[in-house]
């Protein structure tokens, strides 16, 4: 089916339906035979809602200006971080050989890209860890930040 030209031509993938069970309140009732008051809970209703099943990582607009003039290798490593960030985690492992292979860059380019992301406060190296970095959750995050920053 051809869409009109003034509509988005990209069809979203992974949008579907799922069943959720809603919570209902207790209701007060009277036993007709004895006049005794009691409470009962209604059985939960289920309903079908639209659901996006694809994995995603949020990229926040507020801090995006620090990325406008990055090097191509800096962008590659940033995209690697965004793609590989685990849900509800604020750390990422940047194993040099894996990153170089995935991002198609040489060793010096990898270390320059890592230095660039650190200098722009996008990542910070964890103390006592060579390959593990904290990500700046104000730039990107996979999941709900409230779960770990309460």
Topology (SSEs and partners):
Elements: E1 15-21, E2 26-30, E3 37-41, E4 46-52, E5 58-59, H1 72-84, E6 91-93, H2 96-103, H3 107-119, E7 123-125, E8 132-135, E9 140-141
Antiparallel strand pairs: 1-4, 2-3, 5-9, 6-8, 7-8
Helix pairs in contact: 1-3, 2-3
Nearest-integer average pLDDT: 83
Q: What is the string of helix and strand elements?
A: EEEEEHEHHEEE
| Strands ordered across the widest β-sheet | 6-8-7
CATH topology of the domain at 58-147: Arc Repressor Mutant, subunit A
CATH architecture verdict of the domain at 58-147? Orthogonal Bundle
The tally of strands reads 9
From the spread of the alpha carbons, the general shape counts as elongated
Q: Provide the β-strand percentage band.
A: 25-35%
Point out poorly predicted stretches. Answer: none
Task: Supply Rg.
Answer: 25 Å
Determine the CATH superfamily of the domain at 58-147. Answer: Winged helix-like DNA-binding domain superfamily/Winged helix DNA-binding domain
Main β-sheet, in a few words?
3 strands, antiparallel
Distance between the termini: 47 Å
- The helix content, as a percent range, equals 10-25%
Can you count the helices?
Answer: 3
Describe this structure in words.
- This protein has a domain at 58-147: Orthogonal Bundle (Arc Repressor Mutant, subunit A).
- Helix 1 (72-84) crosses helix 3.
- The two termini are 47 Å apart.
- The strands form 4 sheets. The chain has a 3-stranded antiparallel beta sheet with strand order 6-8-7.
- 23% of the residues lie in helices and 25% in strands.
- It contains 3 helices and 9 strands; from the N terminus they run E-E-E-E-E-H-E-H-H-E-E-E.
- With 150 residues, it is an alpha+beta fold.
- The model has no long low-confidence stretch (mean pLDDT 83).
């Amino acid at each position: 089916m051809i869409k009109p030209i003034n509509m988005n031509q990209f069809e979203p993938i992974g949008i579907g339906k799922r069943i959720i069970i809603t919570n209902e309140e207790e209701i007060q009732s009277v036993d007709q035979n004895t006049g005794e008051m009691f409470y009962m809970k209604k059985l939960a209703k289920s309903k079908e809602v639209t659901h996006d099943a694809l994995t995603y990582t949020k990229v926040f607009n507020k801090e995006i200006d620090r990325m406008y003039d990055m090097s191509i290798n800096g962008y590659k490593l940033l995209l690697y971080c965004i793609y590989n960030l685990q849900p509800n985690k604020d750390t990422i492992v940047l194993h040099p050989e894996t990153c170089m292979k995935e991002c198609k860059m040489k060793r010096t380019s990898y270390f320059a890209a890592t230095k660039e992301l650190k200098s722009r406060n996008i990542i910070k190296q964890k103390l006592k860890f060579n390959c593990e970095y904290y990500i700046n959750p104000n730039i990107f995050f996979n999941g709900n930040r409230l779960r770990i920053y309460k």
